[in-house]
Amino acid sequence: MRVAQPFQYQGSKRALAAKILQYLPVGVQRVVEPFAGSAAFSIACAARCRAKEFWLNDFNKPLSELLGLIINHPEDTADLYKATWRGENEDALEHYYQIREDFNRTNDPGLLLYLLARCVKGSVRYNSEGLFNQSPDKRRLGTRPDTMRENILAVSMLMKGRTIVTSHDYRDVLANCRESDVVYMDPPYQGVCGERDSRYLSGISFDDFVAALDQLNERGVRYIISYDGRLGDQTYGQPLPDYLALTLVEIEAGRSSQATLLGRQDVTFESLYLSKPLSEALGAQPCVQHRNSTTQMRLLESPSQYGIIST
Ligand SMILES: C[S@@+](CC[C@H](N)C(=O)[O-])C[C@H]1O[C@@H](n2cnc3c(N)ncnc32)[C@H](O)[C@@H]1O
Question: In the predicted model, what is the mean pLDDT of residues 104-109?
Fold first, then answer.
């Protein structure tokens, strides 16, 4: 099933959304994405009618505003993109730098759409002063305006009237989640970014994240976390503590953008952690696709609890 996606975004879960959706129970009232990025998971949920409502949040304000524009004002957003796009014109690169300067002055989310469509690997990078400083991809022209319009209209059709979009710190979102929600979290990668990585406006602290998960557990809110993973033999990300009682399911991500970013050929496995009420309701079994016991020991704190799939 092809699901529309208006813009490329580094770390997008578009390619994995169908696999992750296997762990979403049926009849979900609302899916909450506190680290929405391009909202690939929620869009895939909407396309497959897997939830009635959505709450998209991203700390990056122009990005969350862009999601809001795409959903609620699709024609205007597509018109602005058309007016901004330059295709193969000779001045296309110069134009990109001009738009980037305009965006840094105004934070206009419509301009961000053009930058995302045209920049290297859809990778949002900011300098220490918070200015967008990603270069244009010289080999790509950016999505053509007609295709962009189709994608925007398709996403708007799926999400309009049943989606709220905010730009808060994820902890404020989690504090307001209901027991009937399912929260899908895809926080910034630890392994390749660290906490000070310039690809995101804000990194997150591991301890704060664990504390927030603990509170969700106390309130019985169901959640799924995409959490770093493993590239070949190399694991990324500090393991989440046992006391959170999460179920780990590794999903094969192929040679993901993260692998490409690291210049590696290895297969990437992404870790998906399911909260206890969710895994119990689904009857989900832990599943680790492993090649090498050292990796397994590093990834898991109590390997004997886990079912193992050899690859
Ligand atoms: C790995 S990306 C999510 C990608 C997304 N799943 C997708 O498919 O496009 C993580 C996102 O978290 C956002 N973020 C970083 N720190 C945050 C915070 N403290 N609260 C909320 N969002 C944050 C970043 O702006 C980034 O868009």
Answer: 97
Q: What letter would DSSP give residue 275?
A: -
Nearest Cα to 290, choosing from 273, 274, 265, 267? 267
Domain containing 100 equals 1-186
Q: Is 141 part of any domain?
A: yes
Q: Does ligand 1 have an atom closer than 6 angstroms to the CB of 127?
A: no
* Residue 250 bridge partners (DSSP): 271
Residue 310 has pLDDT above 60, yes or no: no
- CA of 36, closest atom in ligand 1: 5
Residue 118 beta carbon below 6 angstroms from any ligand 1 atom:
no
User: How far is residue 87's CA from residue 300's CA, in Å, rounded to a whole number?
Assistant: 48
Q: Is residue 43 part of a domain?
A: yes
Structural domain tally of the chain?
1
pLDDT band at 185 (very low <50, low <70, confident <90, very high): very high
CA dist list (Å): 239 to 57, 94, 273: 25, 45, 11
- Report the length, in residues, of the chain: 311
